[in-house]
Write a structure and sequence with these properties.
Elements: H1 3-18, E1 23-27, E2 33-36, E3 39-42, H2 51-61, H3 64-73, E4 75-83, E5 86-95, E6 98-107, H4 121-125, E7 131-137, H5 143-157, E8 161-166, E9 179-184, H6 192-200, E10 206-209, H7 215-226, E11 230-236, H8 240-249, H9 256-266, E12 267-277, E13 283-291, H10 294-302, H11 308-314, H12 323-332, H13 338-342
Parallel strand pairs: 7-11, 7-12, 8-9, 8-10, 10-11
Antiparallel strand pairs: 1-2, 1-6, 2-3, 4-5, 5-6, 12-13
């Protein structure tokens, strides 16, 4: 990368860090855009981005093998150590037959659970020895941050062997009371499926899977949870009902009874979250929670998923909560504006 381009990129990333930005967007013939607290800001101090600059970014961040993968698959996401306290997740992809880049900034200081406004159910999750805990919500809703904070708490308070399967690795842990080993898809293992299958045969207490999306990945996550491991997994899904439906759909019609039983017995908690702009600056987490208590299990087994929301509204003793109630509470406490909360009502 030419020195002048590298200097510009360095200044841009460091400015984003100073502004506590979450992302930087690079598109040809446009100015770079920084996203801070959900708001977009164009950086117009230099000329618009050119094809040559995007190509030099590719050469700066990617190895020869990764460039080849980008050309073949038309997309690649890699982790990059920027500084001692900041890591980048860099996504290269094509749109309108041109290269685009999104850099997500990942501070390496892991926030504790109180700072993140995590739901009360997390205290119960820390005491689980097995089962599946699913974190869902739109991309950019802080799902990984939630899981990382929980894993770090386990690391600091319990003697466990923890394994993560990630694509890419975002946070890098240091062993405390626990042993944490991290495997990156494409570098340490060829796929999520291989990583999860290998983990089932190992003496692992806690497993984190950074994304489950295919039927096979979902089934393997459930089977791992049923084998005596505590499994945390992220799913791209914005409704708890839809998440459970995706689990059911992972099984063939001939496996329907087996799948229903496996889901109802292995799934313990689903957290569906959003990040809202906070009054006074910054963002705040709003989470809805479903817990597989006896009522929830009966509904899941019967397939009457449309009743889950009423269960979440009436089972607060089990630390369940529905998103709309949480949003109303944030407005009543003066933490978010009514019009901001309305964007996320279900």
């Amino acid at each position: 990368m030419p020195a002048v381009d590298q200097l510009y990129l360095t200044e841009l990333v460091n400015e984003a860090i100073r502004n506590e930005a979450s992302s930087i967007y690079f598109d040809i013939s446009n100015y770079p855009v920084i996203k801070t607290s959900g708001k977009l800001k164009k950086i117009t101090t230099e000329d618009v981005l050119t094809k040559d600059f995007l190509e030099t970014m590719k050469d700066f961040f990617l190895s020869d093998d990764q460039i080849e993968e980008l050309q073949t698959k038309k997309e690649i996401t890699i982790g990059y150590d920027w500084s001692t306290d900041m890591r980048l997740s860099v996504n290269f992809f094509f749109q309108k037959n041109s290269l685009s880049v999104v850099i997500n900034l990942i501070p390496l200081n892991i926030k504790d659970m109180k700072e993140l406004n995590l739901p009360n159910i997390v205290s119960d999750i820390l005491n689980l020895n097995s089962g599946l805990v699913l974190i869902c919500g739109p991309i950019g809703s802080g799902r990984t941050t939630t899981v990382i904070s929980i894993l770090q708490t386990i690391n600091q308070t319990k003697e466990k062997r923890i394994l993560t399967i990630e694509d890419p690795i975002e946070y890098e842990f240091i062993n405390d009371k626990s042993i944490i080993q991290q495997r990156e898809v494409g570098k340490d293992i060829p796929s999520f499926e291989v990583g999860i299958t290998q983990a089932m045969d190992e003496s692992i207490d806690v497993l984190f899977i950074s994304n489950i999306s295919t039927p096979n990945q979902i089934k393997l996550a459930l089977e791992s949870a049923s084998s005596g491991k505590l499994v945390f997994a992220i799913m791209d899904c914005d409704l708890i009902n839809t998440a459970i439906e995706k689990m059911f759909a992972s099984f063939k019609s001939s496996e329907k009874d087996f799948g229903t039983t496996l889901v109802s017995e292995s799934l313990k908690v689903v957290i569906n979250q959003r990040l809202l702009q906070k009054i006074g600056g910054g963002r705040i987490l709003a989470s809805e929670v479903f817990v597989m208590n006896s009522s929830g299990k009966a509904i899941v087994k019967s397939g009457r998923l449309e009743q889950l929301r009423s269960i979440m509204q009436t089972s607060r003793a089990d630390n369940m909560q529905d998103l709309n109630s949480v949003l109303r509470s944030l407005v009543q406490k003066g933490m978010v504006k009514p019009e901001e909360a309305e964007k996320y009502l279900i």
